[in-house]
Amino acid sequence: MNVNYEKIKMLIDQCEETDCLEAVLARIQAEVPSMGKDEAVLRLLAELAKEGEA
Amino acid sequence: MNILIIQILRIGDALQLVPVIKGIKQVFPQSRLCLLTSRLGASILGGQEEIDEIFTLHKEQMANLLITGNKEDILLSVEQLRSDLHEVGAVKWDWVINFSYTFSSALLSFILDAKHRSGFTANKNRQYLAKEKWFAYSLASFMNRRYSNFNWVDINKNILGLPSVPHPPLIVPKHGDVARVSALLQKAGFENKKILGLHPGASRAYKRWPLQKFADLGRAFVQKHGYKVIIFGDETEKGPCKQLKSYIGNGAEDLSGQTTLDELKAFFSLCDVLVTNDTGPMHLASAVGTSIVSLFFSTHFIETGPYGAGHIAVHPAISCFPCQSTVKCPHKKCLNYISPETIETIILNRKALGSNSDTDFLGRDKGMVKVYRSAFDPWGNLEWTPLGKNPMTFEDVERILLKTTWLYHCNVINSSNNTAHEYVLNRMALYGDPADRIELLDDLEKLLLNLSKFSNLLDAGCRVCLDIQTQLLKVALDRPVVESLGKRLTALETELSALGDGSSVSFLTELLTVLRENIEQTDILRLSAETARLYRDMKVISQEMIQRAKEVSALLGDRV
Predict the structure, then answer these.
(1) Of A45, B75, B399, B426, which residue has the fewest beta carbons closer than 10 angstroms?
(2) Do B2-160 and B175-390 have matching folds?
């Protein structure tokens, strides 16, 4: 499945913004032209958070 | 072949999967069929013999961690996801099927390795999409609920292109469970008595028939008709169920919060009829094969009614039905439209009632409620027949036109052997004369006019797309010309959207929008070719609907 969970955790850990999931996502989207699996995992978590709040 | 179904929604959605799971296994008996679902879904579908393995996604647990916003909690949820996807992610799936309409489920479909994906997914361009036109049809239904024509089971069946799915009973309670609950009922004095099941709960207040009405209904059956009553509900519904039991008095047993899933199946199988709101247990009862009288207030029985023949659906005859509770209702008066006396009459006469029955059976509810019985149409899709000669409305005509047109478009029926025409005639015969025939004919004329405009705009759009392709294929690209054509296409699309006037044309414009959004955004040349093809398809749909509308108009004119 090729997801780099350690990298995902590192990006979240290093993030200094309040909404770190969204901030990391915005950074990846600006840097990478197409969505990879790591980004999809971050998006999935962001969506689960939104669904949990709804 | 490794097949994975993703379903991470509610109990009812999981239960509506059962016929489709069985249908897949019929077509692919040698396949390894697995399910990725929530903990609740796993508990509901765990016993299905067709499912080889269930993978659980602890989505509530992750959501609870994520909404705190704490970095530590987010990191814990990453670990949870890694653990949940460890095994399912290690498999090379031949076919991943996602029936959930959420972005999270679409992303799951994208993340997993799959040769082929069906249903809602995502792509590398960060686009959420589904390739199947039945999926687009269901999304267009979301926006125009009153024009829905198909149960979710049939939509899912058609998304996968399954020729058919088995009909209930789909779940057989275990012999031991039936024997045990029968003994319990015997002890409670239920032996040789007809049993009325009542399920008064529902997830939202807008779906609940008032408790007092359930009580009056239960009391009438105990005192007047010698029935016994079983009250069903989960742990959270124990309070109202206890209250209901005390209203009905002797002859009622309250089982809320006391049954396992297997016991619930067994109890449902012993009921002569179950009266229920639109709930998950309603779908469980229909899967077991229990006869159901279902009450719908905010949701639509056509989409989520009990799947199987012979069930009854009752809904208030109110213009805002089905509201889907999308707006906060100031009155909720629809909940009081249906009286216990009407349900009592329906239960006692449900087999004798037909579309030709006098609507007097509705008593004081006449004109306030509509009653339908389920059956399967000639193509194996669930369909609801109105009971009592209801006057035909324009909406009834539009729904018949849309369904026939769609089935024609999907090659299920064809015009050449007159099947479509016969179907329209048969459906129209189920309704009484319209209250105002001239008004109905006028409405049909307006519809024909709008459909013609729709068709002409699609034609124009198709020509613009072809012009764009011609320009793009030139050696020296004339950018201003392409830009001008792009602007022309945008203007045409605005005109097309403006045709959505609340009538069935709105459904078509919504369908066009959804199908357009589901075109993969690659290069402009391919995009314009795909858009041209879509416009051509939609034009064929509108032309077919025009033909049917003209036939209906002539038929109604002849009846004058």
Answers:
(1) B426
(2) yes
